[in-house]
Amino acid sequence: MTVHFIGAGPGAADLITVRGQRIIGRSPVCLYAGSLVPAELLAMCPEGAEIVDTARLSLDEITDRLIAADRAGLDVARLHSGDPSIYSAVAEQARRLDAAGVGYEIVPGVPAFTAAAAALGRELTVPGVSQSIVLTRVSTLSTAMPPGEDLATLGASGATLVIHLAAHRIDQVAEELRGPYGGDCPVAVVAFASRPDEIILRGTVDSIAAQVHAAGVTKTAVIIVGRVLSAEGFPDSYLYSASRRRTDH
Which of 42, 80, 212, 245 is paired with 34 by a 20 to 30 Å CA distance? Predict the structure, then answer.
């Protein structure tokens, strides 16, 4: 039997992958991440499935359920919002499953930052402006950032910066960004990306905090920083250039 860690996407139920949907539809046990996973996905579970909200469970309680299902010969759909590769706590769960000899697979999903970029109608890698994206967060009471991963250091490259789990500390974020990016650098905040209650805020390093406070955005948001957000007059990508030599293979 297998535990399937499934990226449930950023919020819209139809942004889950076909593979993820099929696994949900055949798994007799489903564990999901509270209000972050849309109810429409849970409706895909087979009739009689055990459906468990993990919002109030500890890590050990969650993995105990995964192991128990495996011991009972049952496949498990373990739903995480966004994509399991970032900020999902899959690493901690997988470590415990490895120790218990339980097999698992990871099914990728649409991450929140790509849904946010889509909502903004922007590409985050623009020729001549930025070809790199840094995904990061800020320190919290639960998890500190490793040395050298503060916003000022990461922003020194001038790359497009995507900050997760930080809307509640927008004043601190703006202050740390002012040095490497400048007060006039474009910033966008997208909360609840792809959902009916999606909120899109556009401003600058100097102005974005006031907008975030006024909108009451404190969670489920992505902060995107960089000149790509207002880029104009940039050169076309060589990928589709008429001067590029093309072959049939």
Answer: 212
